[in-house]
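Researcher: I'm comparing several assemblies side by side, and this is the next one on my list. It has 456 residues spread over two chains. Same procedure as the others: predict the full complex and return the structure.
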Amino acid sequence: MHDIVFAAANFINLDAVNIIYLFVVGFVGGLVSGFIGSGGAFVLTPAMMSLGVPGLVAVASNMCHKFPKALIGALKRAKYGQVDVKLGIVLGISAEAGVLYGAHIQESIKKAFGEAGSNLYVSVAFVVILAVVGGFILRDAWKAYRSGNMHEEEKVTKLARWVQSINIPGTMVYFKSLNARISVLFTIPLGFATGMLAATIAVGGFIGVPSMIYVLGAPSLMASATELVIAFVMGLGGSFKYALHGLVDIRLAMIILAGSLFGIQLGAIGTTYVKPFMIKVVMGVIMVIVLFSRGLMVPVYMSQLGLIQTLGETTVKALKSTSFAIMALALLLGAFIVLRAMWQGRRAERAATQEVLEHGKL
Amino acid sequence: MSYIIRRQEMANNYGGTRKKPIGGMILFGIVSFALYAVLLVKQDMVNEYVGLGGLYAFFPILIAFIISYVHGSFTGKFWTALGIEASKRKKEVK
């Protein structure tokens, strides 16, 4: 009961400025999520905390805005034939297990090394995973751009071809996004890793989407759309878990949702105008920039743990502000690329249509 | 003749003269606004119930589903009414 009273007492007062701030952050986050399947959430938790929301309530409220947002995004993109519901649910179930295990690891680290230890773990996870996966995605997108194959259908990787060639009787399932039967056993570690990352850095899609593309062989557009199904499954389970402890600030979640539902619809529409490699460009750019943002915080937490010389208060403050600013920049840049690509796509389509109509005049 | 009609239909579609869902947008917009107004005006009561946890965990989940349906319908119609729709060239990914 004490916990419950504590949680309710930590629901902040909302004024007009806070509401507008959350709405705008929600919109930008939704725009990016609608396009790449996830990616908006990492900035929302710190954004809420900057308003004085306790960390756990911020995580819970973020989760509670995520699942309805992902649902609307998935429905929208399903209209364009981009969603593989079966793959999303299969991956979502193992992702749910990953979320629970990831949260458990977080709690254990927090108990053993305190808040700074937990923050250091999160930041190092950010830097290592984003460097490896983000670097790989950007390299792939750059190769496609350089070779001029942006219009061509994406090639299935060697690894994905191998995964699709393995036959384990009793576990084979056909997935439309892969246009192949694969063993569901391959999906378990991928979903689990997605969930673990979601529990650690709030964005499971940075593992989920690349693994669907490069390990299973799904096209980028379908992978990013299917990620929304995974986010829905994970978010619903996670929200319920937090809601059981009375930690969800539903007002915060719904205000962010108000903005993000505008954004996610627009991001989803944007996917129909761009070349598939743009999904990789946006995802890779965001991942690499966020990597630097979190990298800046590593010395702060190391100094708090006494692993390096103690940093001055001014230095810590400057590093924190710069880190948050870079993170916001990553999201804004992602949103800018999405809007620009969409604008160019629409303009090209209008020009082509005009030409058709002019030629067709009798 | 049928060719000319088809061509005219295509021009109409691309020209954006199709009926825009203004009525639906306004209706869902009003309901969405009303839901948000209730949520914020009655925030003390909402916080109290949500903060209870336990079986009341269904309460925030239910709110999220209702608002996502109403507000999601509104935002979808909002972009359509503004003429921002999916590309007509590639509806499906292969």
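Model: For your comparison table: The first helix of chain B runs from residue 2 to 15.
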